[in-house]
Amino acid sequence: MLLTTLGDVTDLDAQDPLAAYRDRFVGTGSGLVYLDGNSLGRPLQATAQRLATFVEDEWGGRLIRGWDESWFLLPEVVGDEIGRICLGAAASQTVVGDSTTVLLYKAMRAAAALRPGRTEIVVDRDNFPTDRYVADGVARECGLTLRWIDVDTSAGVTADQLSEAVCEQTAFVVLSHVAYRSAWLADVPALTAIAHDAGALVLWDLSHSVGSVPMSLDAWDVDLAVGCTYKYLNGGPGAPAFVYAAARLLDDLVQPVQGWMGAHDPFLMGPTYAPAKGIRRMLSGTPPVVGMLALQDMLALIDEVGMDAVRAKSTGLTEHAITTTAELLPDTTLASPRDAERRGGHVTLNHPLMREVTEELWRRDVIPDYRDPHGLRLGLSPLSTSYAEVERGLHAVREVLDSLTP
Predict the structure, then answer these.
(1) DSSP-derived secondary structure for 227-257
(2) How far apart are CA 289 and CA 51, in angstroms?
(3) Distance set, CA 228 to CA 53, 94, 181, 242, 297 (Å)
């Protein structure tokens, strides 16, 4: 069996046009192997300086004046940057606000209100748990029924499956652009068109694709989308999520958490609520200004590199992981699409011992993730991960599997 050699990997890194960007991230010079960047991205070195400057100059120096000078509009400013750089979305359709869960709830309730009289929500059983849990709660609140799509956990929702599920009673569909378990990359325009043909809306969860896979939400005729910013957008633990709503829906969009920052005139402090015009109506409480600082650094870096280049590196890393796994780990099963056109930025390998393998790898400073059933998930964040790092991680998997196998 001919395994990839260190020389081969050195060549891959030497030929990588994005290799130098890895040095901009904290910790990449250490011996730790980090293969979980699709769950929590490494911080940029520039962020440490940004945070320090913010504390001294803006928070400490400007104090409450900061709201008038920049903070009040920051959710829209950063939202527009996410839309321009990552989503293929024109301005004034994306805003940064609450957690992913809260924004999913707001978007689902808004979608249900836009389709009165319809009785069903379509969701697949392998969607991320939060999406399923929120959909279940919204269904109970609104007197709707969940229609489930059963999918292969190593793949995702297909056009045929969605066509069978939607009907004249479908209010909206909840789908993930990249499946959290398998990395299945959904055909957004095709699936959106199927739902629209049935008169339904689609809410896309972009959490496992934004910053890794290029998008064209406007061109794809997407209705609503939500995504987190602490994975490939490196916003840090608990960084706020974003919500996108197509311009054609904004005038009629009603969300259930009516807070003062989403009001037409927040400082009127009036007796009744009137929503702000445009996407700002999706806000509720005081914006998480500190939580948007690291995100701005990563957006600037992606803008400098370009999403097409990011996707090319992502595809190269996942392809290398799959090829090396076939040689080095033939006793594992690939639980992700083999076709790069249907694969996002991570790779999942199945083996009955993967839970134990993951625990031991963490003790060795090799950090992948584990997902049932029996899945070792390798999250290969394109700008902070090298080919050599992937190689070291996979060899560590081999060593640990051998130590656990009688």
Answers:
(1) E-SSSTT---TT---EEEE-GGGGGG---S-
(2) 11
(3) 25, 13, 16, 6, 16
pTM of the model: 0.96
Amino acid at 141: E
**Following DSSP, what letter does each residue of 201-227 receive, concatenated?**
EEEEE-TTTTTTS---TTTTT--EEEE
Q: What's the N-to-C CA distance of the chain in angstroms?
A: 22
Give residue-wise pLDDT tens across range 261-285. 999 999 998 899 999 999 999 999 9
Distances, alpha carbon 115 to alpha carbons 199, 201, 211, 253, in Å = 9, 8, 31, 11
Catalytic pick among 230, 232, 244, 387: 230
The one-character DSSP state at 336 is S
Every domain of the chain and the residues it spans = 6-47+307-404, 70-302
Active-site residue identified among 377, 387, 392, 398: 377
CATH 3.90.1150.10 assigned to domain 6-47+307-404? The reply is: yes
54 is catalytic: no
Tell me if residue 128 is catalytic: yes
Q: How many CB atoms lie within 10 A of CB 177?
A: 26
* Given 231, 313, 343, 398, the catalytic residue: 231
Q: Which CATH code fits 70-302?
A: 3.40.640.10
Q: Taking a C-beta distance cutoff of 8 angstroms, is the pair 18, 325 a contact?
A: no
| 335 in Cβ contact with 179 (< 8 Å) | no
377 is catalytic: yes
* Catalytic-labelled residue, pool 25, 34, 105, 128: 128
The answer on pLDDT for 1 being more than 60 is no
Q: What is the pLDDT of residues 8-48, one digit of tens each?
A: 788 999 999 999 999 999 999 999 999 999 999 999 999 99
**Torsion sign (Cα): 51, 57, 58, 59:** positive
Domains 6-47+307-404 and 70-302 share a fold: no
Peptide bond between residue 373 and the one before it cis (omega within 30 degrees of 0): yes
